[in-house]
């Protein structure tokens, strides 16, 4: 049995990953997020913790109460940000970094002591963590920061046998952009099922195989 925690597993790619993981009934899947109502159809098959990852106090309380030793931690939390720097409010700038960067750091720190030797951390980053694109300054800042954070942790954890895989997808078909009022035609989007399958593939790799990073480019947008 594998204990797998999916943060941001209530919607989009994270939910797709959760649905695939529960098909293997030997997995114990734990979902962390803010909106359990999105999980109605699978609620008996998972454990759920209601947490806003950008809230330090909530993450700290979770750290104190959560006692499950993890084989895999997947963090798929994210909010989109698009626009010119002069048009963002200070609150939007802060919120983007709190959710897209600090929240991932809080959670990784909080769950570190529960990560078993040989476990995997799978970070859902973005092509915005590799490329710098106009009007993506908030997202690029957070995603480049996230890449730096996990690159450094990969070095720090070498002796601990914890493998970090960073996933860098291009545009895929979730409601991520629509949620912030930027609807985008999904005709040329990558199907999120395809990305979820790659991630579940990483979860099922043999213990002696390590994939540090995977880029999944959408060549319609490069
Ligand atoms: N869609 C794309 O084209 C695309 C491309 C490249 C990378 N990505 C990345 O892929 C990841 C997943 O995105 P997605 O497209 O699947 O978006 P999504 O459908 O909007 O899902 C985002 C998830 O993050 C959770 N979340 C947001 N803020 C949170 C918070 N403060 N605390 C806890 N959970 C929070 C959401 O939960 P709630 O139910 O609580 O809102 C939801 O489960 C993100 O890291 C995103 O940056 C997306």
Can you offer a commentary on this structure?
By secondary structure, the protein is α/β, with parallel strands linked by helices. The chain has a single domain, classed as NAD(P)-binding Rossmann-like Domain (Rossmann fold, 3-Layer(aba) Sandwich). Helix content is 34%, strand content 20%. It contains 5 helices and 7 strands; from the N terminus they run βαββαβαβαβαβ. A 7-stranded parallel β-sheet has the order 3-2-1-4-5-6-7, sandwiched between helices. α3 (90-111) links the parallel β4 (70-75) and β5 (115-124). The longest helix is centred in the middle third of the chain and has 22 residues, at 90-111. The chain is globular, with a radius of gyration of 17 Å. It starts with a strand and ends in a 6-residue tail after the last strand.
Mean pLDDT: 96
Helical percentage = 25-40%
The first-to-last residue Cα distance is 40 Å
The CATH top-level class label: Alpha Beta
Going by helix content, strand content and strand pairing, the class is alpha/beta
- Main beta-sheet strand count, sense and barrel state: 7 strands, parallel
What is the beta-strand fraction? 15-25%
The CATH topology turns out to be Rossmann fold
Which residues form runs of ≥5 with pLDDT under 50? none
Radius of gyration: 17 Å
Ligands (ions, cofactors included): NADP nicotinamide-adenine-dinucleotide phosphate
- The counted number of beta strands is 7
Apparent shape: globular
With helices defined by DSSP (H or I, 4 residues minimum), what is the helix count?
Answer: 5
Query: How many domain modules?
Result: 1
Strand order of the largest sheet: 3-2-1-4-5-6-7
CATH architecture descriptor: 3-Layer(aba) Sandwich
- Quick one: CATH superfamily? NAD(P)-binding Rossmann-like Domain
What string gives the helices and strands in order?
Answer: EHEEHEHEHEHE
């Amino acid at each position: 049995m594998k204990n797998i925690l999916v943060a941001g597993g209530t919607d989009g790619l994270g939910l797709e990953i959760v649905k695939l993981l529960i098909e293997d009934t030997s997995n114990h899947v734990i979902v962390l997020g803010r909106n359990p109502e999105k999980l109605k159809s699978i609620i008996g098959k998972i454990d759920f913790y209601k947490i806003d990852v950008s809230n330090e106090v909530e993450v700290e309380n979770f750290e104190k109460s959560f006692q499950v030793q993890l084989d895999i931690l997947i963090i798929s939390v994210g909010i989109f940000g698009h626009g010119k720097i002069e048009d963002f409010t200070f609150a939007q700038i802060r919120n983007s970094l709190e959710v897209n960067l600090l929240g991932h750091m809080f959670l990784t720190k909080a769950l570190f002591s529960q990560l078993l030797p040989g476990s995997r951390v799978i970070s859902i980053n973005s092509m915005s963590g590799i490329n710098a694109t106009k009007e993506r300054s908030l997202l690029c800042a957070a995603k480049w920061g996230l890449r730096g954070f996990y690159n450094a942790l990969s070095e720090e954890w070498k002796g601990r046998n914890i493998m970090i895989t960073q996933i860098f997808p291009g545009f895929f078909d979730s409601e991520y952009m629509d949620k912030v009022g930027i609807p985008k035609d999904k005709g040329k989007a990558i199907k999120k099922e395809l990305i979820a399958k790659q991630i579940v593939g990483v979860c099922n790799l043999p213990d002696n195989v390590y994939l540090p990073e995977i880029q999944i480019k959408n060549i319609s947008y490069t």
